[in-house]
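Severity: low
Component: inverse-folding endpoint
Summary: output formatting inconsistent between runs
Steps to reproduce: submit the following structure tokens with default settings.
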């Protein structure tokens, strides 16, 4: 089937839209990384936090960061809530920027986020859920 000028225009607009979405995602991720570097990591360092571990999950069009745990250099838990109650909500928002697009859609997905404070690295271990169907047909001659 030969493309018409209308189809070419639609394709060009679609490509432009995809490029704009990718640029917005890149900008949000860069902003999140900068916020971690300049605001959150210094606060965590002052509190003696070496590692932040979080878990997230989503399905059916909803998803969230479920837990956030803070560990010192000896892997001992630190309760930061009384020390700085603003950190957990900030991390929740920042971690969402790192999560895979669509982790909360349909069957969803889940995973773990690890922030290594001194190294300045975020690692996402993600599992995606899906439904699999196996069809078969059998015919019997009588």
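Observed output (run 2 of 3):
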């Amino acid at each position: 089937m030969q493309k018409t000028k209308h189809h070419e225009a639609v394709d060009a607009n679609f490509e432009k839209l995809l490029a704009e979405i990718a640029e917005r995602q890149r900008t949000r991720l860069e902003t999140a990384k900068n916020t971690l570097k300049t605001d959150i990591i210094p606060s965590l360092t002052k509190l003696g936090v070496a590692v932040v571990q979080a878990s997230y999950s989503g399905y059916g069009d909803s998803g969230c960061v479920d837990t956030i745990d803070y560990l010192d250099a000896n892997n001992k838990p630190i309760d930061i809530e009384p020390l700085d109650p603003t950190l957990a909500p900030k991390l929740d928002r920042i971690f969402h920027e790192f999560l895979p697009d669509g982790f909360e859609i349909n069957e969803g997905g889940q995973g773990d986020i690890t922030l290594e404070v001194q190294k300045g690295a975020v690692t996402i271990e993600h599992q995606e859920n899906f439904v699999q169907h196996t069809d078969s047909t059998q015919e019997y001659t009588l």
